[in-house]
Amino acid sequence: MAAVLLLSSCTGSSSQNAASQTKNNAEDKTKTIKVGSTSAVVSGLDPAVDWNGWYTVRYGIAETLFRLDDSLNPVPWLASSYKNIDENTWEIKIKDNVVFSNGEKMTAQKVIDSLKRAGDMNSRAASLKDCEYTAGSDGKTITIKTKEPYVALINDLCDPYSAVIDTAAGKDFEKSPIGTGPFVISEFNENTKAVMKKNDKYWDGEVKADSIEYINVADFDTLALSINSGELDVAQDLSPESAQTLKNNTDINLNMTTQSRTYQLYFNLETMKDKAVREAVMYALDKETIDNVQLNGCVLPANGAFLENSSYGGKNLKLRKYDLSKAKELLKDAGYTDTDNDGIVEKDGKPLKIKFCIYKRLAMENMAVEMQSDLKKAGIDADVTVYEKSTFYKSGDFDIGLYSIVTMPTGDAYPFLRDCMQTDGVANFGKYYNKEVQEDLEKLSKEFNKEERSAIVDRIQQAASDDAAFDYMGFNKMYTAVSKDVEGYLTTSNDYYQVTKDTYKK
Amino acid sequence: MYRKICRRLLYFIPVLIGISFISFCLIYLAPGDPAEVRLTAAGVNPSASALADMRVKMGLDRPFFMQYFNWLSSVLRGDMGRSYANDMKVMDIILGALPSTLVMAASAMIITICISIPLGIYTALHRGKNVDAVIGCISFTGIALPNFIVGIALLYIFSYRLKLIPILNSGGIKGMILPACTLAITMSSKYIRQIRAAAVDELSKPYISGLRSRGISEFDILFKNVLKNIMVMLITITGISIGSLLGGTVVVESIFNRPGIGTKMLSAIGARDYPLIQGLVLWITLVFMLVNLITDISYTWFNPKIRNI
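Structure tokens for the assembled complex are given below, as produced in the milestone run.
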């Protein structure tokens, strides 16, 4: 299979002419942009249901009050401004010229109806359910009163579950939600295909593309062949291997976008009590070489849990860097020496063997092999166990483990830190506890000042690193192949935004 | 005969219940929480309260036997439940995937039969000659090649290079050619060898010499005697193949972008989607039992010595 795909990449140039020819001959007069991915289409489009909002926003059907910029900071989108009146009260002004695709004006009351519906229907939006909403008499002011201080409200209003739809229009929200975006759904086949036509009534100007078609392509190699042959204009989320086969195609731009999805390294503090061993593991892992060389650059080495260009990038953090001799020294000082010259250190006659657990997700398996090799150089025998799912974490049956997680889904650091570091956090798999970290987490949940929040996040991350409780191997990079005929297709670190009014095919 | 068929159909009920119970137990015992899988679909940790709410909503907070009997009683009322992954009706999901699987299975089977019967008998008639060696060599290569290699190679040649067929499934007959051929190439390779072996065995029997000495034409010997006698074996392997094909062919469905029963089963297992897994298990069990029944009935037609089905 690899040989066949390699062949296709090597002979790419000769076939490109043929491909372009066929493409031109058969070119759709309406200039449809065809986007393929292994998960391009799901079972429904109602933004309030599960994760479907991600697709409603990606397809350009609906928009949110705020959106995340390149640094993952919320900026107004359908809203024009906001004010934090007191700890529990927010005032949001919405844009005056926004209309839904059915021509209805977007009023404050319609936004409230949509947000309430999301709060009622989506368990992730439970905080929106407990709020009190008031629409101003001017029709464009929304006042939200929260029960508890809700610091991340504006961030959460970037989450696609809060995409604004006209709840009074129609009932089939799963197949034809009415939003304010540049496109309108015209055909939807569950898990197969979604076709959108341009919204002639779009509030933010003329939409350049006539239509967009999203197609599920189940196999990565088929996906790569499809864009190579010109049947697709965009191939989203390619595997690193299939992306390699497109490198010689001069008609395609191959983009790599760093996501806020990190490969987090957990230490089980109940089974790995010796801090020196945990520190040795951290010093022994050469992240730069693993990510940039051995994984062909499909992972960006990380310094902390959050992307460097975000507000919580942790530029002042002092974290451990790769230092093999330091790792060996730490082990030696802790009483570990290689007495039988087998390359693995021993203490009290017992070799240093750790249970390294991973599950099948993205580049995790390849990464684990390289990590195992690095650990062996330090004299640590890491026994890698590969699971189907991440369920082994809950039982605590691991010494170290990799976890793939989006750390800033809406640009705020608190939910991630709470989940993995708070004593009762849902993802505190390593049973981490540090009194000062707990206090800082409490402060963070109530702190509204951005600079102060950033400082608290740094303190928490620094303490967790000093305790050798967590490490971060890197951020996942997403491969997207875009035909050079297509302009304005977005690839962002949060992966919410793809097509806009300015996306078009030449 | 009708009474025997009715009796066999009655046997289906305990078998279906038994298999559904075993599969329910196995899924239940497998690690993985369907509520957690659903809430972490996009890679974000769910809150503890969201997880608890989802478990209640999905009925996962109930005891094992209650979950199974709730499911069973719904099925007996004709309701196979809703998918845990996307809340769609299980019946709708299966019916949606079925046409693609049925058409692909039928096309692959027809191509296989059309290729393998003539070639199998031809090589048996010319055993030991060059043509037998060449076809034998091709058959062994076909058996050794996995489906995904054949599929990708066909896509590369006929879609990417020659541009005869679109890579992405267009939904028409054109889109069915390559997946059906992929399945047929592997199956035909096996069938040719099995038909050849059975035909060689049949042709070496004394009655063939008798027929030839009485001046019966070679065509009549082959098609009225040899073929009829190897039919029982052919029907047996065809029945098994049809059962497997209708149970889904994940790799081929995936390469040719034709989501069918196999793809649904794979994604349902990944999502720990109990209702969908159970629905698909029932479907696959039913298909195998029906195909077996039809196979057994057909034996009596080709070989009247076989009385009991």
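The mean pLDDT of chain B is 87. The radius of gyration of chain B is 24 Å. Further analysis is deferred to the final report.
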